[in-house]
Design goal:
It is a single chain. The chain is built from 8 helices and 14 strands. Helix 3 crosses helix 4 and helix 5 packs across helix 8. By secondary structure, the chain is of the alpha/beta class. 25% of the residues lie in helices and 30% in strands. The chain is globular and about 60 Å long. The strands form 2 sheets. An 8-stranded mixed beta sheet has the order 1-2-3-14-10-11-12-13, with helices on both faces. Strands 7-6-9-4-5-8 form a 6-stranded antiparallel beta sheet, with helices on one face. It has 2 domains: 222 residues, 3-Layer(aba) Sandwich (Rossmann fold), CATH 3.40.50; 99 residues, Beta Barrel (Elongation Factor Tu (Ef-tu), domain 3), CATH 2.40.30. Bound molecules: flavin-adenine dinucleotide. The site of flavin-adenine dinucleotide has 26 residues, from strand 2, strand 7, strand 8 and helix 2.
Amino acid sequence: MSRRLLAVSPLARRPSAAFAVPLARYSDNASSQRASPRAQALAIFASTFAGGVTAAYFLWPSEYRGAPTFNNRTLSPSHFTPVTVTASEPCGPDLKLLTLAIPPHALPSPSDASILSPVWSVFIKDDDIQVERPYTPLEGIDDQGCIKLWVKKYPKGEVGRWLHAKDVGESLELRGPLRTFPFYKGTWDEVVKISGGTGFSPFYQLLHRELLQDSARSRSTRFTLLHGSPSSAELPPPAYLQPLLKMAEEHPERLRIGLYVESQTTSPSTYHRLQTGRIDKAAIERALGLSSSSTHAWWRRLFRLDVQKPEDRDFLRKNVLVLVCGPEPYVLQSCKLVSNSHRHAG
Ligand SMILES: Cc1cc2nc3c(=O)[nH]c(=O)nc-3n(C[C@H](O)[C@H](O)[C@H](O)COP(=O)(O)OP(=O)(O)OC[C@H]3O[C@@H](n4cnc5c(N)ncnc54)[C@H](O)[C@@H]3O)c2cc1C
């Protein structure tokens, strides 16, 4: 497995604000040679407007090659564990929901619960060609010892296609849990998550733990999820989207959701909040609670003043974490939009 980290800081122009914008791409040895521009990526903008310095990290383990397989040990990033496919349900074009049962002896003990803190993923090995890819359990490990993965199949994608072809009862090997990024409860006033396609999964895992499973957690944090899918048929499975929409409806002070699709292929009434189009700068500014940049820029240009609107001042006082996850071009575009939105806030 190769690891690429690009550390760019388009936002670090204010001495009082510290930003870390790591952009990571992970792939196996073979695909790292061709450096696919469309691998899934995740970026974190961490801003400490209220003071202090914050870093955003990717804690990612080292090489996997040669990791052994053990049938009688607890799950670990350093070896593979055989698990069984117990369900494989189509849920949209080239999308499947897979359920994998972890053998009871391999389940982490309750005293190791912290290793399952969001957000984590597992590497799955395609043993036909000996490559591995990371996937994110939507709800962590459930009471039955199962994990559920929402997996996209790409036309020439190796592991996605291999996983889609797996039948119920078949076995496959995974290693993990591996920390995708750490979420420090109580640190953030606002967490804005921008996801594309299956980039939804890490954010769902976080929201499931922090809001749905235990609503007392992260009380001081407001979450916003802006999710985009190519079409309405490719939106996250309703079983995962509906509880979030209900939560957003009942507790807008804790969760806000914006859903975007480029084309509507199912009945528009499925989700009344569905918007056609891409997540744009205006959507991000609304999510960040910023004034509209067009008006703002107009005033600035006209009077050559550094006008700072009250809502922008509020934003600058808060600890805001912006997470972006999805295919790499999507992440790059979203980072650019977030960066522009922040610049306008002053
Ligand atoms: C931490 C982490 C968690 C992840 N969790 C999930 C998850 O829960 N569910 C999930 O489906 N994926 C997830 N991914 C992405 C997954 O690891 C693979 O990158 C993805 O499944 C493609 O692998 P592949 O072997 O099928 O395709 P590859 O063999 O790597 O790629 C083959 C072809 O498909 C194209 N391709 C690959 N990825 C994309 C893409 N995202 N968009 C468009 N074209 C692409 C490539 O350009 C290439 O032409 C995650 C990635 C990371 C880093």
